[in-house]
């Protein structure tokens, strides 16, 4: 391989690496990945799903303390049968615990790191992005992006 071919290969690798790094994510992509991990294989996309010994409700498997922290009016029970309501709860929760990441995702300029932080907080609570226990969950989320 001559120097010209080597430089061409290096340039291609850098372009591909740059395009992967430049990938932008939306709030919808983030929510869809979370739902797929939480209840994706269930009938009706997880509507009516109850998990974690009766504590997690609906397509996003939202617990009562999470719902309460979101500040959304209504009741935790509404998460059970409403995807739209559950998404409003997630948005409220992230507005409180990941506002910058939420903002970037809402305008379609989120990074992979933004999605990771939101997903790990969804799974592990306000400081879930710091917990090693949420890394496995994050690897599952990445498969659906």
Provide a descriptive summary of the structure in words:
- With 145 residues, this protein is mostly helical.
- It contains 8 helices and 2 strands.
- It has a single domain, classed as Orthogonal Bundle (Lysozyme).
- The protein is 61% helix and 3% strand.
- A two-stranded antiparallel sheet has the order 1-2.
- It is globular and about 60 Å long.
- Mean pLDDT is 90; it is low at 5-17.
Percentage of residues assigned to helices: 55-70%
Shape field: globular
Number of domains: 1
Low-confidence runs (pLDDT<50, min 5 residues)? 5-17
Cα radius of gyration in angstroms: 18 Å
> What kind of sheet is the major sheet?
2 strands, antiparallel
The total beta strand count reads 2
Can you summarize this structure?
By secondary structure, this protein is an all-alpha fold. Helix content is 61%, strand content 3%.
Summarize the topology:
Elements: H1 3-21, H2 27-39, E1 50-51, E2 56-57, H3 64-70, H4 78-81, H5 83-97, H6 99-106, H7 112-124, H8 135-143
Antiparallel strand pairs: 1-2
Helix pairs in contact: 2-8, 3-5, 5-6, 6-7, 7-8
Features:
single chain, 145 residues, mainly alpha, Lysozyme, 61% helix
